[in-house]
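Ticket #4471: complex job returned nothing on first submit. Input attached below:
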Amino acid sequence: MKINSLQLVGFRGATKPLTLEFDPSKNITMIFGENGNGKSTISDSLVCLCTDEHGSLDDKSSIDRDFYISTSSKPENVLIKLNTDAGVFSAKSPKNGTFIKNPTTGHPIVRHLRRSQITQLIEDQPAKRYEKLGSYIDVSNIAKSEDALRKAKKDADYDLKVAVSTLNNAMSTLEKAWKNEGSPMKSWEDWARTESEKDITAEAKRHALLEEVQKNWASISELKTKLENERKALSSANASQKDTEDKLKEAIKKDQNANEDLLNLLQSAKNYITGKDPITSCPVCNNVIEKTTIVNSLTEKINGMEAIKTLSLQVRKARQETDTRRSVCLSTVGSFHQKLTSIEKTIAVIKEPPYTALMNDLSLIKSENAEAEKINEFLAIYDKMGEMIIAQRQVVEKIKTAIVQNNLIKGQYQSIGESKIKAEKTDKVCKAMDAAIEIVENLRKEFVQNELLAISSDVNRLYQKIHPNEFLGGISLTLKKTTKNSLELNADFHGKKAITPQSVYSESHLDTLGICVFIALAKRYGSKNSILILDDVVMSVDENHLDRFIELLHDDCSDFSHILITTHYRPWRDRYRYNRAPSQKVHFLELRNWTLDGGIRVQNGRIACDELRTALTDTKYFDRQKITSSAGIILENLLDFLSTQYGCKVPRKPRNDYQLRELLDSISKKLMNALKVQHFNKDPAAKKYAPDSLSHETNLKDILDKIKGLAIVRNWVGAHYNYDGSLVSDKDVEEFGKLTLEFAELLTCPDSGQFPDKDKSGSHWETKTGSIRLHPLKEPS
Amino acid sequence: MSFPNPNQTLSEQITKKLIEKGLVSKSSEKKIAQALNQGTMRESDWKVFLEEIINTPKNESNENK
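Support reply: We reran it on our side without changes. The output follows.
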């Protein structure tokens, strides 16, 4: 995956919209800028876009999420947009630290290291260190599943216990029952099996019939009592009715004119006449009547018959009571008859004594008589039947007990079978779970240890690259055995094994150790889609260690899709700028002074030779001073390289700040005559320089002589104000610049931009890529 | 240089080993690996996967291997 551009709007220091264009042909971008010019804004933007973290803001103890937003912007205007050959990824409108991302998944993997993390990584307590690195060896989901497995095993153990207990209980119950039965057959198992195989359907059916007879008889007994009571009540009602009727007859006998019908007639007449107004004649005889007189007369006669009226009412009530009692009796007789029919039907089915005899008795009352009479006939044999049926109660209970016991045996015997199967199966499950727990636990521990071993091994290898022959190393990351989730970091120091490095390592050694741990992890858990961000990770490193660190980056991080380096450390930038590092593989960007109004300002960084080349080809303005000045610095760099390689003699100075003339004069005549470079052709198929395909060979004496002749131009034109400088022609200035470029190109690898500083053959120096050989290996004696 | 996450790598190793030891069925490989990787394997899931083999007649079980 290649990064094409990164656009920032309203994000942190990007107070003005900013677009960084990346060089797709180079997978390392170095952003150089002094502090406060926007380096962290750029690296944080990628972290916020591609991860759930917040970059350098995560280092702050109290994060104000508004920090994401530029002072001149609003949350809704914030935008981070990354354009890659795999698609466009954007994040906008942060709210409480969360961005709206599009797409929501599939972002490039970003591994981000800041200086503060290096310190934490090395100096934190083991538990804190585990927190930092835990995500790399995080198998928490496996641990969750392992916990679930252990819980499942616990449940299965319980199930097994229950199954075994059920089995034992059933066996014990059956054995006890067998003994109670007098221990028939050889064993309780044989007895229980035989018993459980018995078919008791017929016996159960018989029991049901006999039980029904018992129940019906109980109902009949209840109905009999009820009917007797109701008959008594009816008899009483009849007597009461007769008594009342006799009293009424007696009263009427005493007053011949009075009778119930007349009383009713007079009452009706009074009601009619009272209701008519006016009324002047009798509605029966049409004689003239006077209303008040006739109403008073009627009232007087009615009052005279009050006793008869009361008695008439009592007679009506007595008759109603008798009717009700009779009706109740008839209803009970009906129920009685139904129950009688029912018991008769049940008994008819039971073909065994004494029920056959009972059936004979019942058949006697099977006449055409009315229900009441049938009942009366039945009541005649009631006591005899009752005795026989009640006597059968014990038989019914015995059958019931036998059935219940048989069912119990069957149940327990079945339970034994089922429990045996369940216990066997659960036992198998328990064993399988034990085996599974062993596998999961062992593989988990083994995995984490192996990961840490692999990481430790790589950290060690990387660290040795930066610090060879320094008696350091033996770096190991191990899980603390006694504590969960604690990560120990140990290292060797001059023969002492497994010490805590922070106790004896220097600050810069700890820095490089932290970087090596991070790079080892990023490499192991990165991918071709990973972006490695090193955000100002180098503070102060000497020249040799810096060169080795740069070499490590180029050698070990080539598999990352992109490496973004931000730094304020100028020596790092200058190692590239002056061809001491593979500048051709790096895209340089420089950040200018940040201002609130101007935001983050970017300019393309250049290596020194490119700057000189640009100045020489500028058709609008021929900058004499710039050309000679730049050429002078480049020459000093090239000659510094040569004089160092060959150990040339220079006048001793407290500081190694040798100038152009001193360096030029340091090359002896013998060396000058022997110096030559060979350039080789590249094999297009192998994409490597072929050592047997020489392109051209150049002696350096000629060009060095020419440069020597023009070297004074650098001081006259490029460094000082003087009259002589004005006399130097543009042609000489141009010649000086071009010779310098030509000399630089003779010594610079076209691929990496590095000098031939490797002694691989023992006979000459050569570039790492094999593109250039520099002869001789040593100054001739 | 492509490394899956540690949970995924380990879940695949565990599943493979469980199958190799005849504790779970080959046909459940994907489901088990996914549940382990995502940390969603519950007690009941373990029981089901382990019982599947126990309940399978021996001939079928050998065929699965």
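Chain A touches chain B through 36 residues (CB under 8 Å). Closing as resolved unless it happens again.
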